[in-house]
Write a structure and sequence with these properties.
Elements: H1 5-10, H2 16-23, H3 28-38, H4 48-59, H5 71-95, E1 97-100, E2 107-110, E3 116-119, E4 124-127, E5 136-147, E6 154-157, E7 162-165, E8 169-175, E9 178-185, E10 187-192, E11 195-200, E12 203-208, E13 211-213, E14 230-237, H6 238-249, E15 252-256, E16 263-269, H7 273-284, E17 286-291, E18 294-299
Parallel strand pairs: 5-6, 15-18
Antiparallel strand pairs: 1-4, 2-3, 3-5, 4-5, 5-8, 6-7, 7-10, 8-9, 9-12, 10-11, 12-13, 14-16, 17-18
Length: 304
């Protein structure tokens, strides 16, 4: 369908040949219904003679008379609205599916090619199911483990970088101030700040507060620890440990006289809050206090 058919049809300016061609298009029925609805609307009444009398009284001379067609401008507006509606329909169709997890929640997602995504707590993925055969693209906020079926290029886009693979298993975590990619099988390509890094199995790429961290230990096992209900950290600032504790248990963590930049190495269980609190507080030499859904971490010499 030519781009100007819709506007010309709404304003009654199509030739017989153009009208016949337009009626054969896939969009015609939808636009016909729109026109039927718009035809029930009435333009406000406008008395041209009375307007001229008022103009003469106000200005003393008769202005140039322009014949008004109040409905024709409305049709042009309707044409614009129709184009916007159709454009929005096709645009929204490309956005496709969104899957979100809440605090203390995880979920599995099976993609159209049987690739699998396991979402950690407080995470979200968005992808186009409609265009999946052409482009295997995922937008990720939060953390997820990917088991990618072999095929075309598979891309995971995050705020801090992009991960590209063909078929492999890897984990991506993208939180505020924290970006980590760990390859468990095959080879992944990580692009951060326009620099590409090849990441073979058993290696990680980590960025904390904009700084690339080197000399990382190799991951243990063939899946991330959180999939076994264990959150593990190796020289990670306490602020990120506390944030993960909040996500896993749906609690609010506050601190008093605690250095949240202190590096923490260890892990905590994701199913037992009391055990998790002790796993963090003991090696960090801090104390904690629990009140309902609130946990306060404080220095040992702080009076309570």
């Amino acid at each position: 369908m030519q781009e100007n058919y819709l506007a010309k049809w709404l304003s009654g300016e199509l030739s017989e040949e153009e009208l016949a061609a337009f009626k054969l298009s896939a969009e015609y029925k939808s636009f016909e219904r729109l026109k039927e609805v718009s035809s029930t609307l009435e333009a406000p009444e406008f008395d041209v003679d009375q307007a001229l009398v008022r103009a003469k009284e106000n200005f003393g001379t008769a202005p140039k008379v322009i014949t008004l067609n109040p409905f024709k401008p409305f049709l042009r507006i309707a044409a614009v609205l129709a184009i916007l509606l159709v454009g929005s329909y096709f645009y929204l169709g490309t956005l496709g599916q969104t899957v979100t997890t809440d605090y203390a929640e995880s979920t599995n997602v099976i993609l159209p090619d049987n690739s699998e995504i396991i979402l950690n707590a407080e995470s979200q993925i968005t992808y186009s199911k409609k265009n999946w055969d052409k482009e295997r693209n995922i937008n990720l906020e939060g953390e997820a483990f990917f088991k990618v079926a072999k095929g075309k290029k598979f891309t995971v886009a995050t705020e801090d970088g992009t991960v590209t693979v063909l078929g492999t298993q890897f984990n991506v975590e993208n939180r505020q101030g924290f970006f980590e990619v760990t390859c468990f099988e095959g080879l992944v390509s990580v692009t951060h700040n326009n620099t590409e890094t090849k990441l073979p199995a058993g290696n990680s790429f980590l960025v904390i507060n904009g700084e690339i961290i080197s000399d990382l230990e190799k991951p243990i096992g063939d899946t991330p620890s959180w999939m076994q209900n264990e959150s593990s950290f190796n020289r990670i600032p306490l602020q990120f440990v506390f944030a993960e504790l909040e996500r896993q248990f749906n609690i609010i963590v506050t601190t008093e006289n605690v250095d949240t930049d202190l590096l923490f190495t260890g892990s905590f269980n994701n199913t037992n809050l009391e055990m998790a609190l002790k796993s963090i507080s003991t090696p960090s030499q801090i104390k904690f206090k629990v009140e309902d859904d609130n946990v306060l971490f404080y220095a040992g010499n702080t009076s309570k």
